Amino acid sequence: MTKYLVNRLLTMMVSLFGVTVIVFLLIRLIPGTIVEQMLGTEALTSYETIASLRRYFGLDQPIYVQYWEWITRVLQGNLGISWRTAMPVLQFIFSRLPVTIELTFIAILVAIFIGMPAGILSALKQNTWLDSLARLVALTGLSVPVFWQGTMLILVLSLAFQWAPAMQWVSPFENLVTNLNMMLLPGFCLGTASAAVVMRMTRSSMLDVLRQEYIRTARAKGLREWVVLTAHALKNALIPVITVIGLQMGYLLGGTVVVEEVFGLPGIGRLTLWAIFQRDYPTVQGTILFIAVMFMMVNLLVDLLYAFLDPRIRYA
Amino acid sequence: MNKRHLLVLVSLVALLVIVVACAPAPTPAPTAAPPTAAPKPTEAPKPTAVPVQPTKAPEPTKAPEPTKPPEPTKPAGPKPGGTLTFATSIDVPSLEPHLEAADAWHRRKALIYENLTWVDNDVVVKPQLAESWDISSDGLVYTFKLRKGVKFHNGKEMDADDVKYSLARVLDEKVGSAGRGDLIMIKQVDVVDKSTVKITLTEPTGPFLVNLAGRYNAVIPKDSAPTGDTLRRTDVGTGPFMVEEFVPAQRLALKKFADYWDKGKPNLDKLIIQVVPDEQTALAGLRAGTIDFVAIEDAKNFMLVKDDKNLVATRTPAIKIDTLELPGDIKPVSDPKVRQAILLALDKPAIMQAGIMGLGQLVGGGIPPAMKYWYIPVEQLPNQKRDVAKAKQLLAEAGYPNGFDLKLRIIVGYATMAANAPVIAANLKEAGINVTVETVDLGVWIADWRAYREPVTLNAWGGFMDPDLLYYRHFHSQPKGADFRRWKNAKADELLDKGRSTVDPAQRKTYYDELQKMIAQDPIMVPLYSADLLNAMRPYVKGYVQHPSGWYYGFKETWLDK
Fold first, then answer.
1. Cα distances (Å, whole numbers) of residue B289 to A161, A167, A185, A255, B67
2. What's the pLDDT score for residue A47?
3. Which of A6, A41, A85, A252 to mutate to test the interface with B (most CBs of B within 10 A)?
4. Which of A40, A56, B382, B394 has a CA positioned 20 to 30 A from the CA of residue A258?
5. Which member of A11, A56, A280 has the closest CB to residue B2?
6. C-beta separation of B364 from B528 below 8 A
7. Contact B204, B221 (CB under 8 A)
8. What would the pLDDT profile of B345-359 be if each residue is shown by its tens digit?
């Protein structure tokens, strides 16, 4: 187990190294730098001014030198200072993290509470109208873009009920009502898309398990149907579902950009987008690296949980 | 498994990049214009005596004191107090008074920092931190009497040394302010006494008082900004509001500055400027009452609220123009006849309808109607009435009887450009010109613009408060100007030089009148229209007057009737 963990962590380091290189290069491929952002197409800005700003940000250095300077600092746990705001990047990220985590949490809850029952029901009533309906809803949930759903919900609610989500985020520990006022709607929008994924996985996994011999055995030995379903079928069917939920969680942590933008939530996704617009390289690199680490950690946890849930799986 | 993780991540990053490439560029307006404008609104120079009060510790951002209870003021009219929540989709990266170039910041800055002068709602220069001034007969020496009893937000009293320091900082090449060009004509700044500053210029400069009010200027306390980072997240202005909390890309919370020199102002205790990236969401908040005021960027959204009986929607003519730029050194538009033909073939009202739902003003010579003093109405300029037959005839004379192919550039994310381009293409098609639209990234566009190789393109200008600032750099030949369109027009140079070196406004106006006519006659730049500034607010928001620059001076006078 320890050996497995060490192995996983080591390969993670390699992946992360790749991430740093790719992020570093990609953001520099977008035309324009922070200097253009700062100066606009400004009047008599002299070329000396431009050059001195480029020097200030180290943009005059060869790219491998820039990378080396950044990565050595990162290895010391220092993500640097945001160029555009003069704020430490890590502090910037941590100020945004609670929003994204809460959003992910709500979305996952929505996904589980809608997706799993719907999937189970759909599997049990396979090929009935109920099944068709559930699958249709799931397909719709997958197909409708989250931003459109969000915009429509906001529009309808504000027109019909003069209600709109709060605009300023407060911590749930500070004021739960205001917090939920702001977070429930985006969490719901985000969750419905994931619910569709969870529902489909639950359904197919459930169908798969229901065809297994041990289910027939369980029924044959006279167990009541709900015991068969919960203790035998569901327990086994849920293992792949948990993987899917874990993966969804990983995606949500890094992939809430659109919802955060529509609802004006100050989360990590919007921070990343903002930093890219501003060509604030340290912030872009810092946030994406951070998202990558979170994503990998969640995956590792899911894999470990997997072993815990399914005794047949052992990491040696 | 790990390879898969990596793949997923790479695609995530790629996705992000795609999102960025496709998303509307938020902050920077493609301002190709030399911006300059003025801070804080004031009425006439009133000698304001502010009693010297014990002041707070120099704690710029979060001064401890909440806000004083509204003193009993005038009978009817403005009620003091209250918090106004204002939503805008454009965000501010930093608060650096001399360095930050984002237009969104300059709008907010008008409430926090002030200058010797400001340009009022009618685009006329008025005193702000200066009380009065004398100009020597040769136009070279300006002597400013400073307003007494002006305090900075950190409690320090403003004096001549601070003014000198602030101007010197903008002029310091090492600081890197883009506003240096506005002040480059300053030869020397002398502190005569505590409340008198003498500024000597290298040459007479017509728009100098407007330049002083420029967007990159701000009077800050001496030595308060040793580095470019010091003032990025806090403030030390003299304006009616001070920064209570600044969260980049989210919120700028302002609170009333109790020691403000213009006694009784501002009316509001607090002004929360909330960044709501999606305008529809902001308007939903306005309908629901969680937001009091929204600045609308997208004309389509204005149409949604303009008839809402529970809201007040306003339009204000603005100091900005959308243009079609026709470079002077790229065939076939290098031929003045071809340029004139293009102008004659355009249906400007239709273009304005497509771009901004018609919510704007037509412009002929470059100066928009908001600059009342300088503007020449479209009807009084040549070539403003659509005449396709004449356009065809001109093209034939220029040697293009069968028209030609033309590439028209627009910038990614600028919705109005994307909406204008097809109308322009359809208009020009009627005259025989086949337009293909090319969309480029802002970075590419700026690089080409700076390198003097921008082809035919749509452009958006803003922020100029004086004709000199609108025209000089863009049309005067190099090296004094930049002549981005390669016009190389000696007559224009002469008019621009005269307009710049003359101090008398009436005299200057004759030069700029002629220049507007020249541009209408030989459209090296075709001004299309000026988009109005659009706001929507709850009915209890009173007293807000929108400044034509788009800046938020109006909140100094705003009060809540509830």
1. 11, 11, 18, 30, 24
2. 66
3. A41
4. A40
5. A11
6. no
7. no
8. 999 999 999 999 999
Closest partner CB to B16 (pick from A157, A159, A272):
A272
Which residues of A fall within a CB distance of 8 Å from B281?
151, 154, 164-165, 262-264
| b/e burial code for range A294-304 (CB count within 10 A of at least 16 → b) | bbbebbbebbb
Greatest extent of chain B over all pairs of C-alpha atoms, in Å: 80
**DSSP type of residue B554:** G
Q: Chain B residue with minimal CA distance to A264?
A: B276
Q: What percent of chain B has pLDDT over 90?
A: 66
Tokens read off for B29: 């307006």
The pLDDT value recorded for residue A313 is 72
- Asked whether residue B38 carries a pLDDT value surpassing 60, the answer given is no
Query: Quick count: other Cβ atoms within 10 Å of Cβ B526?
Result: 25
Q: How far is CA B7 from the centre of its chain?
A: 44
User: Which residue, among A17, A19, A22, A38, would best test binding to B if mutated, counting the most B CBs under 10 Å from its CB?
Assistant: A38
Distance between CA A35 and CA A51 in Å, rounded? 9
Q: What Cα–Cα distance (Å) separates residue B336 from each residue in A51, B327, B398?
A: 37, 10, 9
Q: What is the mean pLDDT of chain A?
A: 86
Partnered with residue B275 across adjacent β-strands are B88
Distance from CA of B555 to the nearest CA of A (A): 20
Using 50, 70 and 90 to split pLDDT, how confident is the model at B64?
very low
SS (H, E, C) B296-337: ECCHHHHHHHCCCCCCEEEEECCCEEEEEECCCCCCCCCCHH
DSSP category for residue B551: -
> What pLDDT was estimated at residue B244?
95
Average model confidence (pLDDT) across chain B: 85
ipTM of the complex: 0.79
pLDDT for B32 equals: 36
Q: Mean of the pLDDT values across residues B476-482?
A: 83
- Neighbouring C-beta atoms of residue A133, cutoff 10 Å: 14
Using the predicted structure, report yes or no on whether residue B72 has a pLDDT greater than 70.
Answer: no
Instruction: Note whether A52 contacts B176, CB cutoff 8 Å.
Output: yes
DSSP secondary structure, B196-248, as one string: EEEEEESS--TTHHHHHT-TT-----TTS-SSTTTTSSS----SSEEEEEEET
Q: How far is B12 from chain A (nearest CA, A)?
A: 8
| Contact assessment for residue B532 and residue B361, using Cβ atoms and an 8 Å cutoff | yes
User: Are β-strands B293-296 and B83-88 bridged in parallel, bridged antiparallel, or unpaired?
Assistant: parallel
Instruction: With CA atoms as reference, report the closest residue to A45 among B175, B381, B127.
Output: B175
pTM, to two decimals: 0.81
